[in-house]
């Protein structure tokens, strides 16, 4: 069954300015990140502020960003959760409902952002190359990839744990452009974090800061309506 048309998109031609679109997973193809934190609180009783503080408490001694320990494979999921639990327990926070298989519990009950998934499929049908560029975790791969269901539909999936690089590192954009076979200036990133959008633009890409579906559709369709000759149709 063909996915529905999400928005009017100019088909890719030889004169198109852009040839590929990479979608972020968390907060773009997934539900909003804050929604995921709130649902985790309902499952475990751990408030988002406490969980975020624990994540920082694990990452800070390693000198890296909050989720980098697992997104770069510095720690296994099991070791990371053990450290999270130790940090929380030391501050009197109950972790009895928080499972060691964090990813399974985190993603349980959630579905893909169907609008964005259908957009990705529509872009492929319109002649664009499409990829997923995600900061993610080895042990979480079965959950998020089955949730998104794009393994056989996109041209490239670049996952931080697998390549040893994560956004906003400029090197990951060079690698991702190479993986999808398109020069950087012809690639668009759709991401919910402004820091990643800024990094993509600094690497020569274009970026759409994802705030909600409707705004992203407008911004992306506008970019895809430009040509390489004069910058506009």
Automatic annotation (TrEMBL):
Gene3D superfamilies: HAD superfamily/HAD-like (3.40.50.1000), Putative phosphatase, domain 2 (1.10.150.240). This is Putative hydrolase of the HAD superfamily. GO terms for molecular function: hydrolase activity. InterPro entries: ACAD10-like, HAD-like_sf, HAD-SF_hydro_IA, HAD_sf, PGP-like_dom2. Keywords: Hydrolase. PANTHER family: HAD FAMILY PHOSPHATASE, HYDROLASE, PUTATIVE (AFU_ORTHOLOGUE AFUA_1G12880)-RELATED. Pfam families: Hydrolase (PF00702).
